[in-house]
Amino acid sequence: MTRGMAADLYGDVPPLKRDTWREFVPGLVVVTLGTLAAGFIADHYGAPLTLMALLLGLSLNFLSSDGRLASGLALASRSLLRWGIVLVGARVTATQIIGLGPVALLCVVAIVAVTIGVGVVAARKFGFDTGFGILAGGSVAICGASAAMALATTLGSRRINEAQLTLVLVGISAMSAAAMVLYPVAAHALSMSNLSAGFMLGASIHDVAQALGAGYAYSDAAGQIAAIVKLTRVALLAPVLAIVAFFLPGNGSKAKGTTLPWFVVGFFVLAGINSFGLIPPVAAAGSAKIATAFLAAAVTATAIKSPLPKLLEAGPRPLMVIAASTLAAFGLSLLAALFAVH
After folding, report:
1. What pTM was estimated for this model as a whole?
2. Inter-helix orientation angle 102-125/130-141, to 10°
3. Do 265 and 245 meet the contact criterion of CB atoms below 8 Å apart?
4. Around 132, how many Cα atoms within 13 Å sit in the side-chain half-sphere?
5. Per-residue 3-state assignment (H helix, E strand, C coil) for 87-144
6. If you placed Cys at 81, which of 130, 240, 298, 317 could pair as Cys (CB 3.0 to 4.6 Å)?
7. Residue 40 DSSP code
């Protein structure tokens, strides 16, 4: 199992030999069972799917030393992730984004940009590099764990290691769950209108499911606004990945002619097709479910592969970077909702 020992999460190390399909089966079976178990818990107890996939993957971390699983784990954490990102494009349409209006749209773009900037500044303050700041800030700013996986893939393993990615996934999952509970309480305390509350919740909560859950918990009208705002943030994933790929290519050196990762192009293409109404609603709903499953499987595989001893080396500093970005996103979203979006 030479390749399994050499390959990494991002596929930066070229394979020494081509695996046969049988070599993928053991790892994929473990990932599938772990993801199904996470889905069962999430459905029956109302827990976030990403968090359950992460915790179950970490509980299976002892299997990472089994070389027979390496090829399947690498496939799940790399290829399934990239196809999941492509399929996320079926959630987004240009009509949804335009429907926000120019002021709200500019506010969303500004919130995303500033939140990522705060992540970079906080990362440097706590002793990390720019890559980790982009990972943490971008995960908060865009769409939680899905953005974290996509950004880590784009940045590459020379900038982001598996321990750092897992720490971000843990922090994002915990803070997104807390935001889903606390932010609607803040909106009620401020007597915000459905429009303002929906915008604030959609523009600040990390994960898609939690943002929508918080919005509909406030009111149906707020939930609809939160969904549009949140999906607009999801749509910004591709431009952000394109910028990161250009300025911080995965090989660690800036080069002319840096091309977009194929999964970013796929995201744009699918979102464009969906914008013209060429994807039937049933197919769009099905692709969204497949994307969710692929991304959950990628989280499970990443957690299984993560080097647990390294997770404790940095202490609470990585979580402080995520917390700084979270507070920035909440504060900016609240200000925009109260004074710019009416």
Report:
1. 0.71
2. 140
3. no
4. 24
5. HHHHHCCHHHHHCCCHHHHHHHHHHHHHHHHHHHHHHHHCCCCHHHHHHHHHHHHCCC
6. 298
7. H
